[in-house]
Design brief:
The protein is of the alpha/beta class. 32% of the residues lie in helices and 14% in strands. The protein is built from 13 helices and 17 strands. The longest helix has 25 residues. The radius of gyration is 24 Å and the shape is globular.
């Protein structure tokens, strides 16, 4: 059964007066009504105020490592691959699988074991790279999934697939679906907030990744920037005070209401909701972005970079503050993981950026009693090849894109901590146990939020769409 939407309504006189097309116009109007069911019940309540299922999580903090972190240097320990470093990738392992144009023309594909060590950590004995010593401290809070796989082999479609459920741009993003379905518990902040690490912008991240697609525009993500103006054009211009802005919004709302009565376009209501949210954000955003009230112990936890606005550490601290204020979906992007060459130096730098802050976020949420109701996800859009792209030396190598298998971790919000799920072969090239598709990950996250993924749909252009498209199974073995 699909979720119902509120249709816009025209009275009989308006309908025939507007179209004047007899039965043909009636048919057109009927189709318009079906495809125009866009208005949610209100700016803050979703269409599923109680959800479909008992929810274990209230919100998501998604730490997206844009560029594709190497699973072989982080969470998938492969001693056999290390022993066979330099040997050509066996045809029996590759099995004719596609390669990108960046390595397909190489004379050979020399396997490259990680030069970084791995150790077991926690009661669970999880294998974690020596590059992530802080993350290793919370091993028993993590569910490490080593058998994720995707369909896209290039960045744009792969990132779009993770964020929207489709490789083709234009669908609503994950956070927009949650805003639409569950709404927000805080009327003074958006349900969906985006933060981007400022110091690793070496590949494009586009606003459509947090766009609303064909959902009402009030459900799009709002980018919070570092610096003087966290949200562009939010503050009143010179000569306009709060009282003047309030009067302007009231008069505008009256005009918009009349326009809605005339046209029945649900996007009009969405626009009014956005104006009102912007008005309230004039005070709520400066409050949440102001870290001056945080005690010294918090900065000691997150590390010195937390004092530098726009860093991953500062954004993790902001994510905790947004979680405290019941923001539904908090998306952090940390670019820079695309190491086709010079991987050892590049991934050491990237892990240094995120390791302590990721640990601190989990620890901070746990100390405040928020982890049990907050689902934290860490991972990128695909993995990396087990062979070297370009020249392989004892100290240097690169890795190409590899969608066949890669690792992520999840924590909190109903996830079974201290779990390692799925496995790849001894070469880290193919999945041999418990594969998890991107849509399975999305379905599982929605399940934890109380949503049956195949029932949260939206009718657009004659078809019911959903985040998981026509796929997706809840991975029940990783649920607490």
């Amino acid at each position: 059964m699909n979720c119902s939407h509120i249709n816009f309504r025209m009275n009989r006189r308006d309908f025939f007066g507007r179209f004047g097309l007899g039965l043909g116009g009636a048919a057109l109007g009927s189709l318009a009504a079906l495809d125009g069911r866009a208005a949610s019940p209100g700016p803050f309540s979703g269409i599923l105020p109680a959800g479909h299922l008992p929810a274990k999580a209230k919100r998501v903090i998604y730490l997206f490592m844009s560029g594709g972190p190497s699973q072989l240097e982080t969470f998938d320990h492969k001693p056999e691959l290390v022993r066979r470093t330099g040997e050509d990738l066996p045809a029996s392992v590759r099995m004719g699988q596609r390669l990108t144009g960046m390595s397909a023309q190489q004379a050979n594909l020399p396997m490259a074991g990680s030069i970084f060590g791995f150790q077991r950590h926690g009661r669970s004995g999880a294998w974690i790279s020596d590059l992530l010593p802080w993350t290793a401290k919370v091993a028993d809070d993590l569910c490490i999934v080593r058998s994720l796989h995707t369909e896209a082999i290039n960045h744009d479609p792969a990132i779009t697939f993770f964020q929207t459920g489709s490789q083709i741009a234009g669908r609503p993003s994950f956070g927009s679906w949650l805003s639409y379905g569950l709404g927000s518990s805080n009327q003074n902040l958006p349900a969906f907030v985006v933060l981007i690490s400022k110091d690793r912008i070496d590949q494009p991240l586009y606003s459509r990744l947090w766009g609303n697609g064909f959902l009402p525009s009030q459900h799009q993500g709002v980018l919070f920037r570092s610096g003087k103006d966290p949200v562009l054009y939010l503050q009143n211009p010179a000569g306009i005070d709060g009282a003047s802005r309030r009067r302007m919004l009231d008069r505008m709302a009256e005009l918009e209401h009349q326009q809605y009565r005339d046209l029945g376009d649900p996007e009009i209501n969405a626009r009014v909701a956005q104006y009102e949210m912007a008005y309230r954000m004039q005070t709520s955003v400066p409050d949440v972005m102001n870290l001056s009230g945080e005690p010294e112990s918090v900065f000691e936890l997150y590390g010195p970079e937390a004092r530098n606005p726009g860093t991953f550490a500062a954004n993790c601290l902001l994510a905790r503050r947004l979680a405290e204020r019941d923001v539904r979906f908090i998306q952090l992007y940390h670019p820079g993981w695309d190491q086709h060459g010079g991987l050892p130096g590049g991934i050491r730098r990237q892990c240094g950026d995120v390791d302590r802050a990721s640990y601190a976020l989990i620890t901070d949420l746990k100390q405040r009693g928020l982890l049990d109701e907050t689902l934290v996800i860490w991972g990128g859009e695909f993995g990396r090849t087990n062979y070297s792209q370009g020249k392989l030396t004892k100290t240097d190598y690169g890795r190409d894109h590899h969608p066949r298998c890669f690792s992520i971790w999840m924590a909190g919000g109903g996830i079974r901590g201290g779990t390692t799920y799925g496995a790849t072969d001894d070469f880290g090239y193919n999945i041999v146990e418990n594969p998890v598709h991107v849509h399975d990950l999305q379905a599982t996250a929605m399940h934890l939020l109380g949503i049956q993924h195949d029932r949260l749909t939206f009718r657009f252009q004659g078809r019911d769409y959903r985040l998981t498209d026509i796929h997706g199974n809840v991975v029940k073995d990783i649920l607490a």
